[in-house]
Design goal:
Elements lengths: L2 H18 L6 E8 L4 E7 L6 E6 L2 E2 L4 E3 L7 E8 L6 H16 L5 E8 L3 E8 L2 H9 L10 H12 L7 E8 L9 H12 L4 E5 L6 H13 L4 E3 L5 H11 L3 E5 L5 E7 L4 E6 L27 H22 L20 E6 L6 E5 L3 E5 L6 E2 L11 E6 L2 E6 L6 E3 L2 E2 L3 E3 L5 E4 L2 E7 L1
Parallel strand pairs: 6-7, 6-9, 9-10, 10-11, 17-18
Antiparallel strand pairs: 1-2, 2-12, 3-4, 3-13, 5-12, 7-8, 13-14, 15-16, 15-25, 17-19, 19-20, 20-23, 21-22, 21-24, 24-25
Helix pairs in contact: 2-3, 2-7, 4-5
Length: 444
């Protein structure tokens, strides 16, 4: 091998090494509003340890933002939801109990635990306690019973309580369960999804496999990813490893700021990365009578109070928008709400289906490059999740192959679990993760 070729190979190896060591994506795990101080608290996590460099709201620098970087000074409430249904395999119960004791015995300095059990419903065993002795006594007396797993019901009970919480307290959930025999669905699942959209609570999942629960665990792990949290198999990751991660790596930086008008907040780090979240206006509901509430913007509203007012307007917009689309794009396949298709008709169409929410299926003709992102000028507009960038990725069909390219998105693009750089082949049927959302890819 001559020197020129050797130099090229070494450069390629160096480039691949640098790419593999790219900084992990930062994320805003939660936001809290304190009506007493009229300030927001954002809980921001950068797994690579980079420091917060600045905060902007709608592009304007927030000069009064203050930071708390010391994990010991960040108040944390950790909900531990422990599945004690009798269908939990006996050979895994000791490992689950060991994990419980390790998690509770190695808590952070400003952390308290609310320990709950659940099978068909949630039972609060110990509430917001920092006493290991009290928690251990309850764990030692733990019994298994009840045949039905209901993790979604347990999570909804937690969300109902967290909805009432105010002030600068970071709340999170550790769910320990095999998950059951079927993928959750129905009204309870939609209720959980709606809550997490308006007020995210990171849900960390520790699952254990029973032989027929792979689909359920995949759903729960995807739910964890959507909330910015991690997930583990109890048989593959040790209890001490999980405890160390939870008590050190997963304690976020607190960013306090004033943003009375709300807007899109961006927290930037000294390594050049950034994380985004939408902050609603900080106006008390009592200041505006219900009859004078202005109609919210459908694509941007994150206020729980306004969702019910939005429904009839959204229905009217859907009807008139559908009629307009039929007139202008007659013969095209109808797309799901939130997607706009641009381009000419073609014999091959790209479909993206949200794995967690299969009713959300988006499509566009595969002619030229199909741009995907939150912004309205994309061919496929995914404007329902803030972890997706305005211009996230491009998908094209060339030489009888699908290709995908990340557009320097904040949350990154993964194909079947591998984060991509540059342009790579995209197999039909692959799972693509954009930000925190997983999509099934089809083309026909």
């Amino acid at each position: 091998m001559n020197r020129k070729r050797l130099f090229s190979v070494l450069c390629a190896v160096l480039l691949l090494t640098l790419t593999a060591r790219a900084a992990p994506e930062p994320r805003i795990l939660q936001r809290r509003f304190d009506p007493d101080s009229n300030r927001w608290t954002l809980y921001v996590l950068h797994p690579g340890g980079a420091k917060v460099n600045g905060v902007t709201v709608d592009g304007t620098e927030v000069t009064d933002a203050t930071l708390t970087r010391d994990p010991a000074k960040t108040p944390v409430v950790t909900w531990i939801l422990f599945d004690n249904s009798e269908s939990v395999p006996e050979e895994l119960r000791d490992a689950a109990s060991d994990l419980l004791l390790t998690l509770l015995g190695e808590k952070g300095k400003s952390e308290v635990h609310t320990f709950c059990t659940f099978s068909d419903r949630l039972r609060v065993e110990v509430r917001e306690s920092g006493s290991f002795t009290e928690l251990k006594e309850r764990i030692d007396a733990l019994e298994y019973g009840g045949a039905e797993h209901n993790p979604v019901g347990a999570l909804n009970a937690v969300m109902a309580e967290e909805e009432k919480r105010t002030g600068a307290v970071f709340a999170r959930v550790i769910l320990i369960t095999p998950g059951g025999d079927s993928v959750p669905s129905g009204i309870a699942t939609r209720q959980l999804r709606d809550y997490l959209r308006s007020n995210n609570i990171p849900i960390y999942t520790v699952g254990y496999r029973t032989g027929d629960n792979d689909a359920v665990l995949s759903w729960l792990y995807a739910l964890s990813a959507r909330t910015g949290a991690r997930a583990w198999d109890i048989e593959e990751t040790g209890a001490s490893d999980i405890a160390n991660i939870m008590h050190w790596e997963e304690i976020p930086v607190r960013v306090l700021l004033t943003a009375p008008g709300g807007g899109e907040a961006e927290v930037t780090f000294d390594d050049g990365t950034s994380a985004h979240i939408t902050i609603p206006p900080t106006v008390a509901e009592t200041e505006t009578p219900p009859e004078s509430v202005a109609e919210p913007e459908p694509a941007q509203s994150t206020d729980r109070f306004s969702v019910w007012w939005l429904a009839p307007f959204a229905l009217l917009l859907l009807v008139f928008g559908g009629a307009f689309a039929l007139r202008r794009y007659g013969g095209r396949r109808k797309s799901a709400p939130g997607v706009r298709i641009r381009g000419e008709n073609t014999s091959l169409t790209l479909y993206l289906k949200d794995v967690e929410q299969p009713e959300r299926e988006f499509s566009a003709p595969l002619q030229g490059r199909v741009s995907v992102g939150r912004s309205d000028d994309n061919k496929i507009v995914l404007n329902y999740d803030q972890s997706i960038s305005r211009a996230h990725c491009e998908i094209a069909f060339q030489d009888n192959t699908l290709w995908i390219r990340d557009l320097d998105s904040t949350g990154g693009t993964c194909v079947d679990g591998e984060r991509i750089t540059g342009t790579v082949p995209l197999p039909v049927g692959a799972t693509v993760r954009l930000g925190h959302v997983n999509y099934q890819v089809e083309a026909h």
